[in-house]
Amino acid sequence: MTNRKDRSGHAFFRRTKGRHQVKLLLTMLSGIAGTVLVLLVLLLPSLVSAAQEGRGYVDLTAGTMSGDFGTPTTSRLFSLTPTLGYVDSRYDVSVSVPLLQISNSNGGSTTTESGVGDVILRGGMVLLPEGENGFSATGGLAVKLPTASESKGLGTGETDYGAFLGLSRRFDTIKVSLSGGYIVVGDTAQVTYDNVVLFSAGVAKLFSRTEAMLSFEGRSAAIPGAKNPREIHAGVFHALSQDYAVKASAFVGLNDGGPANGFSVGMVRWF
């Protein structure tokens, strides 16, 4: 049994810090992997409208998220994520290599680690193209490779796998979507994680060159006994031209199971 001194001292700080970092990294993985559904369900028609044969793209996104998860320790994750991908009218594949900085603060004690994160490979496919009734369906797969430093807490040192499914219906310039996913989280020698179930319900307003999105998102907790994260997300994607676009997103956590808040900005260059 852990004594009171241990729970209020450095050992408790180290254990809490590790749990926080896992929650932040899983939130990031869910967001990057779920981009498959965003691209295919909401954005792909505008991405390939001028090039049905397909286009390559480079995406550079910077973001941050933070939370205390109901403990005295506050954790913050900064990320800069370059992504190289290819998209056409039916498929989207990409590779992302995040650069991470994670800081943890408890009272007057703060630790910071930085480095390359886990490489994420992902791909998606339009399973049912949008027809006259406005319905469409998409699927996606993602793999997180253990390239981040486990000793720095930038990764678990294990491989994660994810599968995703999205359904949507367009009503003129409004698009309603439902999506779900399942992530197999790799266990470490010290921790056995629960696999993660994800779900979301969202609505998008489509303009000529801009798409604004709002969604409710949730997932089951990977750490046994932790709360299941619930979040509200909002985002906008704007095509500057046939070759450039900008995007921004933000979220607010609804409980202590996940980060309290976060935001990101990015630019996409097609070629």
Secondary-structure element order, N to C: HHEEEEEEEEEEEEEE
Give start-end ranges of low-pLDDT stretches. Answer: 1-16, 35-42
- Biggest sheet: strands side by side, in what order? 1-2-3-6-7-8-9-10-11-12-13-14
**What is the fourth-level CATH superfamily?**
monomeric porin ompg
Description:
This protein is an alpha+beta fold. The protein has a single domain (4-270), classed as monomeric porin ompg (Porin, Beta Barrel). It has two helices and 14 strands; from the N terminus they run H-H-E-E-E-E-E-E-E-E-E-E-E-E-E-E. The protein has a twelve-stranded antiparallel barrel with strand order 1-2-3-6-7-8-9-10-11-12-13-14. A hairpin with a 2-residue loop joins strand 4 and strand 5 (109-116). The longest helix has 39 residues, at 10-48.
